[in-house]
Design brief:
alpha+beta, 195 residues, 8-stranded mixed beta sheet, Aminopeptidase, 28% helix
Length: 195
């Protein structure tokens, strides 16, 4: 596929059975600030951006940058919602996306986070599956990765549950939020060759 990424029609909403993913748009900052603040203890060990409670204004700035990156196809973030009875997005549960995009290779990395009271209910696994279908479908991905701290057992379980294979552990690959070296697990899926 040689189509310029800016010309690819990427859906701004992905629907699963129990989860709705919606691309960022202006006006979400206050809600996102609340969700992150309520999730800090849960996220702080793993997410460098979740060390302090954001203000509504700082979160709005992040949302608008996410929206600009989505439009420019630099980073494809989505918010995770529980659907209402009519299928519309209800309560914001977290975030996910296709990151570290390499359009030449057609490689993407899936990232995700969830508020603690929504963890363990299948929302993240469903979000990963929806993003994988998008990547290997409309985006013609050759490779999709999930990378996580080797100590993050829950994140590793999501990758394995969604059919990603552990390809290796990169020793002392990054610094954790505590400034100490950490090992990174690299999980991957590759496109199936055309028959």
């Amino acid at each position: 596929m040689s189509l310029d990424p800016l010309l690819i029609d990427i859906p701004q909403r992905l629907d699963g059975e129990r989860t709705v993913l919606v691309a960022p748009h202006a006006g979400l900052g206050a809600e996102m600030a609340v969700v992150i603040t309520q999730s800090l203890a849960h996220l702080r060990p793993w997410m460098p951006w979740a060390q302090d409670a954001p203000s509504a204004e700082s979160a709005e700035l992040v949302v608008r940058r996410m929206q600009a990156d989505f439009i420019a196809r630099r980073d494809l973030c989505f918010q995770i919602y529980a659907p209402r009875a009519d299928g519309s997005p209800g309560r914001m549960l977290g975030g996910c996306g296709l990151h570290r995009i390499d359009w030449a290779v057609r490689k993407f990395e899936i990232g995700y986070w969830i508020r603690p009271d929504a963890a363990g209910r299948g929302h993240v696994s469903e979000a990963v599956r929806l993003l994988s279908v998008l990547a290997f479908g409309a985006l013609d991905a050759r490779r999709v990765e999930i990378r996580c701290d080797a100590r993050n057992v829950k994140s590793r379980a999501v990758a394995e549950r969604c059919g990603f294979e552990l390809e290796g552990v990169l020793r002392s690959d990054a610094l954790g939020v505590d400034g100490q070296p950490r090992d990174t697990c690299v999980y991957g899926q590759v496109a199936r060759p055309a028959a």
